[in-house]
Amino acid sequence: MRSIRFGYWPTVIPPRADRYDRHSSCTGRGTTIGGSNGRSAGSHGRRPNGTNILDDLASVGKRKSATLGAELRIGKVVSLPFDENTYIAHLADRADCLVFDPGFEPGQVVDYLERQGLSPAALLCTHGHSDHIGGNAALKKRWADCPLLIGVGDAAKLTDPQLNLSAAFGVPVVSPRVDRTLAEGEQFEGAGLTLAVLSTPGHSAGHVVFVCKQVSPWRVFGGDVLFRGSVGRTDFFDGDSETLRRSIHEKLFTLPDDTIVLPGHGPATTIGNEKRTNPFVGAPAGYVLRST
Predict the structure, then answer these.
(1) Measuring CA to CA, which residue among 267, 281, 247 is closest to residue 59?
(2) Which of 166, 167, 156, 159 is nearest to 136 (CA)?
(3) For 270-289, what is each residue's pLDDT tens digit?
């Protein structure tokens, strides 16, 4: 499997004006994906060409709570210049939340949190590339006691612009240091949520994903491993295409088919959809579908 250079990072900088519709209760680019009933809580964000960048997850599974006792709400803020997705997950009856992969526009995340009356219980990074950690410093400055967590293999990227790939762009990104590292098989608990940690190297050596099994279907906060119809690029210094393929096949494709993947760029998808249709790791690339 050759080194993969396509994907979402880096990408062309899109026009800024009128990129998103405004949410009915949260002015700006922060928008709520929805609660347990599967319906979007507001207007979809849109690219200039009209395609959705805020996913209507009703099309990929009902959002029934399995064990939480309250609906799970997931907001998404899309940050320039790489259209990186920052997710904010919280229970409807709580005022704390989890923030995944704070991007280059932390002001939009702060605006979303303040308008929703939320405060972060933790910042969770799937990996250490600069577009996924660019907002850490601003959020830690605003909420100094909020812990920052990342996979043990990517912790050094937080404070090293060479390793997090920002130095090459002439704007070095230095995040606060990690408060706690995470490894395969661990669980993280915060804001009333329990997340399983899976190690998924290939795009980045220390990449992890977070799986929430308390809702049905399950949710994966997936970073840059698996996208709708694509996979993370592997031409960075610690990327490897075969390792990425194994991570997807052995860690993600073993999850239930209706599991919803919330990727670091682009729209949501499901495990079953990518098994059937992904041209790089799914059936079109030789993956053998198994009857369930």
Answers:
(1) 267
(2) 159
(3) 999 999 999 999 999 999 99
